Amino acid sequence: MSQETGQPAPELTLREFAKTLYHNKRYNNYFKFLKDFPEEKLDLFFQELLKQVGHTIDTGDTSQLTRLVQHTQVEGYKPTEQVQAKRSQTAPQAVPLATLSKPLNQSNIALFTTAAIRKSNQPNWYPAEQTYDEAVKDVMSSFERFATWRIIEKDTPVSDLEVTHVAFDITAAQQDVNVIFPLERFRELEKAGFIGKLADLNYSMQGLTNLQRLEQEIAPQWAQEIKAAGVDAVFLTPG
Question: Measured between alpha carbons, how far is 62 from 57 in angstroms, rounded to an integer?
């Protein structure tokens, strides 16, 4: 029954159901990797999932259930030759690989993420009162926005960092922000002498933005600012 119309909800094929796990009312970031699976694979996966849930209830052992989901995630996220339409705002240009001008243990390294990490006192990319559902409904308007970044000092306590991205499963990052923004790990690398220095200023943006504006207008400006700060290389993490 539809909550909005009071009418019986239309029947969904298994394939259509899987699509609703991604950017829809039935969204579930744990299982959005299923959205591109063919129906026969979905059928087998859900049969095995229910089997393993029952096994877990009986034994209390989650290892097989975890292994099933993890292995299926790997398969679901394998690169394909199919280009996603919503990512075709601009054709990426080939960029030559750059080499470090000095040894890594003498280099000043900055962190830069598109995972929407911010300090608790910095503005969010979305209104604070906006729910996940509302953000998902509004996701396409993100591509009309100008990208903005948040600057995070190297000595910022990780307990003061928040993960606010709406388009990937942030559960692990909420438990340990270092999995997506390895601030503490790079402080350890600096202390161990593996890198020369972690930059005094590090950077975060919301990856849902207008890619053409980012590439042509904003990124060159940011690159100049980062270079002016004496940074030799940037460690990038995606959101």
Answer: 9
Where do we find the tokens 């339409």?
Answer: 85
Nearest partner of 132 among 163, 110, 158, 106, judged by Cα: 163
What's the token pair of residue 78?
């394998």
pLDDT in tens, 14-51: 888 887 776 555 655 678 788 888 888 999 999 999 99
For 197-212, the pLDDT digits (tens) are 999 999 999 877 777 7
User: What is the pLDDT, as a whole number, of residue 1?
Assistant: 46
Residue with tokens 């959205």: 35
Count CB-CB contacts under 10 A for residue 173: 23
Tell which residue, 201, 54, 213, has the closest CA to residue 142: 213
**Given its phi and psi angles, is residue 67 left (phi above 0), alpha (psi -120 to 50 degrees) or beta?**
alpha
Distances (CA, A) of 46 to 57, 168, 194, 223: 16, 22, 46, 46
Instruction: Output the CA torsion 51→24→119→236 (10° steps).
Output: 80
The residue among 180, 209, 205 whose CA lies nearest residue 118 is: 205
- The closest alpha carbon to 209, from 197, 201, 217, belongs to 217
